[in-house]
Give the backbone structure.
Amino acid sequence: MTSTTGPVSSDAAGPVRINAMERSTTATGGGSSRREATRQKLYEAAVTLIAEQGFSATTVDEIAERAGVAKGTVYYNFASKSVLFEELLRHGVGLLTASLREAAEQTDLAGGTKVDALDAMIRAGLGFIARYPAFTQLYVAELWRTNRAWQSTLMVVRQQVVAVIEDVLRAGVANGEFSDEIDVPLTAAALVGMVLVAALDWQSFQPERSLDDVHAALSRLLQGRVSGSR
Amino acid sequence: MTSTTGPVSSDAAGPVRINAMERSTTATGGGSSRREATRQKLYEAAVTLIAEQGFSATTVDEIAERAGVAKGTVYYNFASKSVLFEELLRHGVGLLTASLREAAEQTDLAGGTKVDALDAMIRAGLGFIARYPAFTQLYVAELWRTNRAWQSTLMVVRQQVVAVIEDVLRAGVANGEFSDEIDVPLTAAALVGMVLVAALDWQSFQPERSLDDVHAALSRLLQGRVSGSR
DNA sequence: GTTTTTGTACTGACCAGTCAGTTCAAGGCG
DNA sequence: CGCCTTGAACTGACTGGTCAGTACAAAAAC
């Protein structure tokens, strides 16, 4: 019921503000809010359970129980366990990319450099991970799996995240702020990894640190202020 | 049978040089080589299957079949599926840390700086991942799981990897090469993440790139040569 | 009166772990 | 050498349990 569990927290009683991806809820365009509330509860329950145990080890009965809902309801709302998971993934990644893109845009509007934009995106990424740790865990754990039914969903979802960063890197190269010798895709992947792993480590092994601490450490690394004492 | 699958390749016909952890193979002190060969086959089979599908989705029957061995043999050699997995983890991480540590030492002996050492470790890490991609996948996917039977094994194993890097960072701070304001644990985690994620991305999504390419990109990032055109 | 949820019961597949029995390899012995 | 013994290593059918997904009648909710 409480939030802090996943990327699906929005007030269940309020109007629907999910980034639309439903097949065709109803013709009215609003979508039944009762149904939507149930889905939210299922997302929240599923995201934590799957993050903790993995997809296969998590049972539909568990998800239903944690969501406070009958098992039949799960199947009334989602075609299968896998479909529930895929929609969860898409939903969460939508939130993440929106957050990153917004951070980059804000910096642009404020007349910041591209380094500033990257920095702001690091902060936004950390903020997202702090708010939705379970989702992040699940994302990392499933992203590099091959041989899985939802391979294609995973590819799409990865590309969305990386693309946001690649855009900023390319813009920086174009305006001369970054070396034109940087490898855009690899650097983007490395940056994602840096933030992801540092943040997960932070959450799992030293949760007492503040977001600012973590941000400062990563920012220093990004700007090459590691070598050179002082 | 071929290697390239996991951190468990050594020639099965050769003398036993496994990092010892056997209960009490025989009194002769050598350990049955037949048994050891079977274990190797099981490790190899398990590492790829678990990397592809995850621990829970991989069945003991599958592992046995891929290893060309009967199911009972798995249980003759390992107390349970989880134990097999834990020993696999420990074995692989042992190889990784040895490789990292060696890279750092070599640099030291050659009179290199600590930045050089980090650079050499990045290269060693990339080499390891290229040789044992399945193990790396599995490591990343399982490392941040909570609520799991092998929590403690995971903690130990993580600490071993991070410690190698932290040591170099601390040495660099001590000799004035690095700023004394860097956050050692966080920076170490970030570096691990940078290498891990960039390498997995490389393997999964742009395998045509050479190790040198990837190394160059990460090295540039490490040394802050991203900003500044040229 | 239509949509959504509930609760319970059921099915069929799948799977971790077991165990009684078989094979292997190495040493002893005639 | 060929034969036997012994214990370690291996086998694979079997068991007990679990779980995804189904079915459906009755109750809420709207």
Notes: Residues 34, 59-61, 71-72, 74-75, 80-81 of chain B lie near DNA strand C (CB under 10 Å from a C1'). Chain B touches chain A through 64 residues (CB under 8 Å). The CA atoms of residues 220 and 230 of chain B lie 12 Å apart. Chain B has a mean pLDDT of 83.
